[in-house]
Amino acid sequence: MKQKHYATRLAEVCSHLNAERARYVLVGAAALQLWGTTRATRDVDMLIDPTVPNAKRVLRALARLGMGFAKELAPDDVVRRPVTIIGDIPNVGIFTRAWNLRYAEAGPAATLFEVEGVKIPTASIEHLIESKRTGRLQDAADIEVLEEIRRMRG
Predict the structure, then answer these.
(1) Is the peptide bond before 75 cis (omega within 30 degrees of 0)?
(2) H helix count then E strand count, the chain
(3) At what angle do helices 28-35 and 137-153 cross, to 10 degrees?
(4) What DSSP line would sit under 70-124, residue for residue?
(5) SS3 of 154, please?
(6) How far is CA 75 from CA 3, 49, 58, 96, 118, in A?
(7) How are strands ordered across the β-sheet holding 24-27?
(8) Which domains does the chain have, with CATH numbers?
(9) Would you write out the chain's pLDDT as a tens digit for each of its 154 residues?
(10) Do residues 148 and 35 lie in contact, with contact meaning Cβ atoms separated by under 8 Å?
């Protein structure tokens, strides 16, 4: 199968995740960008369904992307940890929970965005706000922006 080349890291990562049928939702600054913020990031943070079979699919997708370190990780270790970071900058963050948010809530309520023809399940504004209730200054600023987007969308 011929590899398609994408202009964005986000489309590249998500196309591989989708090809493996991984269960994930985009969170973090990349998700904020899809909702309309201008927050700069090249990292891709995803909240995954924390099962061993799904972690295997996620790691296989990242290994095929050329993130060789993904091949070295045990899926059960990924499922046990709240976050696993793969790669240098930009990196991919695999979250089994994003603060208090879990895939069981965020997955069914995800909004699909399309980037370069790739469908990307993205946490809802409400779930992104929930994932940002960390007390960190940047997350508090993100919550303000998300609440403004929610107000503008009615």
Answers:
(1) no
(2) 8, 6
(3) 20
(4) HHHS-HHHHHHSSEEEESSSS-EEEES-BTTB-HHHHTTTPEEEEETTEEEEE--
(5) coil
(6) 25, 12, 9, 12, 25
(7) 83-86, 92-95, 44-48, 24-27, 118-122, 111-115
(8) 9-149 (3.30.460.40)
(9) 456 889 999 999 999 999 999 999 999 999 999 999 988 888 999 999 999 999 999 999 999 998 878 989 999 999 999 999 998 878 999 999 999 999 999 999 999 999 999 999 999 999 999 999 999 999 999 999 999 999 999 8
(10) no
Beta bridge partners of 115: 118
C-beta neighbour count of 111 within 10 angstroms: 16
